[in-house]
């Protein structure tokens, strides 16, 4: 991808849009059968539309999504479709989902959705399904098999315990540190469906999985975690190229586990900081091959911005354009067998060097 956001805005005559707003749009290209087969799709995630009262919503979160939609509408050539990566609402209310969908309705092009825990735990996806559609599904597009999972399910015993109200259940799951929550999972029913779905797919066909939580185990205290991640990874193992794209973490995050490439997409609402334990407690990340780069803790919008992902090689290859912050490129380095942030990560050092802005 040679897309440069500033150049793009210039050529589309949208120079008046400054780069200080939170955007999370991923543009992705595939080259399975050569350049003629390339296509791109856009990705917007984690809007967290939050109702204050009546028609009043938290303006910052509204604006993040509105800006993302506006800029996505300027993309030329047009992406083949868009994905929304989950957490459209903050507390799963109809008003929040309706308002979020109203903003999303301005997006020109086909849009598909992944459900997040903030959309789900009030009514267990009932309103979502009536307005948007199924919680998991697959489709094919130009030689690529796409799978959308609902990865934020959890144990029935937790879901069905005697909550004072459905909103209490929602609030328990909505907290970041989540002391009353429960680990996310894909669950047996969906794993069975996924196994059957993937059996029909040729092993040389690129497979892309959209999930809300990471299909890897990163940080359990914040539920940056999917309890049965290994089961999903196991089903993806036979494929030559498998990619997982997820939201939820509101962070710059990437990984390569064998044939599976992981990309987190940034949020339009706000960035989460990186827990100290990411670099200090290796046990929190048993299978990560790279450690997190620390975002600038003094800049609240770091880890929001534009992100361009090139999926041609089936390995991590990403370019970040961050508002008022240094751009970054993360590329799989075949010599060391890991993705490497070219500006921030030297080989061998467990904790990446810190850069002061
Ligand atoms: Fe989120
Ligand atoms: Fe989430």
Automatic annotation (TrEMBL):
PROSITE patterns tied to this protein: TAT (PS51318)
Stored InterPro entries: Calcineurin-like_PHP, Metallo-depent_PP-like, STPP_CPPED1, TAT_signal
Any GO molecular function: hydrolase activity
Gene3D superfamilies found in the cross-reference section: 3.60.21.10
Residue stretches making up the Calcineurin-like phosphoesterase domain: 42-251
Protein known as: Metallophosphoesterase
Organism: Candidatus Desulfacyla euxinica
Phylogenetic placement of the source organism: Bacteria, Deltaproteobacteria, Candidatus Desulfacyla
């Amino acid at each position: 991808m040679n897309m440069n956001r500033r150049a793009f805005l210039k050529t589309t005559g949208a120079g008046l849009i400054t780069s200080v707003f939170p955007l999370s749009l991923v543009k992705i290209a595939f080259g399975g059968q050569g350049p003629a087969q390339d296509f791109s799709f856009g990705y917007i995630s984690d809007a967290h539309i939050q109702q204050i009262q009546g028609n009043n919503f938290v303006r910052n979160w509204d604006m993040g999504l509105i800006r993302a939609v506006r800029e996505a509408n300027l993309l030329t050539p047009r992406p083949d479709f868009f994905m929304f990566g989950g957490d459209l609402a903050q507390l799963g209310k109809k008003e929040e989902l309706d308002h979020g969908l109203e903003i999303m309705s301005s997006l020109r092009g086909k849009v598909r959705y992944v459900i997040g825990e903030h959309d789900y735990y009030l009514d267990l996806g009932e309103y979502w399904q009536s307005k948007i559609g199924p919680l998991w599904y697959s489709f094919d597009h130009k030689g690529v098999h796409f799978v959308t999972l609902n990865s934020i399910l959890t144990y029935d015993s937790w879901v069905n315990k005697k909550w004072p109200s459905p909103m209490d259940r929602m609030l328990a799951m909505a907290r970041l540190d989540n002391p009353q929550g429960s680990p996310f999972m894909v669950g047996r029913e969906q794993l069975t469906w996924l196994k059957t779905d993937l059996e029909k797919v040729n092993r040389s066909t690129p497979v892309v999985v959209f999930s809300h939580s990471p299909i890897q185990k990163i940080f359990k205290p914040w539920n940056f975690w999917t309890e049965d991640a290994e089961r999903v990874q196991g089903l993806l193992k036979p494929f030559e190229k498998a990619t997982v794209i997820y939201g939820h973490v509101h962070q710059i995050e990437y990984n390569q586990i064998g044939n599976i490439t992981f990309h987190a997409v940034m949020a339009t609402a706000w960035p989460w900081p990186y827990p100290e334990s990411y670099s200090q407690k290796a046990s929190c990340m048993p299978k990560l091959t790279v450690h997190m780069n620390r975002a600038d803790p003094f800049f609240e919008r770091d880890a929001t911005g534009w992100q361009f992902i090139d999926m041609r090689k089936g390995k991590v290859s990403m370019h970040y354009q961050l508002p008022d912050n240094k751009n970054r490129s993360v590329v799989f380095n075949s010599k060391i067998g890991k993705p490497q942030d070219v500006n921030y990560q030297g080989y061998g050092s467990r904790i990446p060097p810190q850069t002061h802005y």
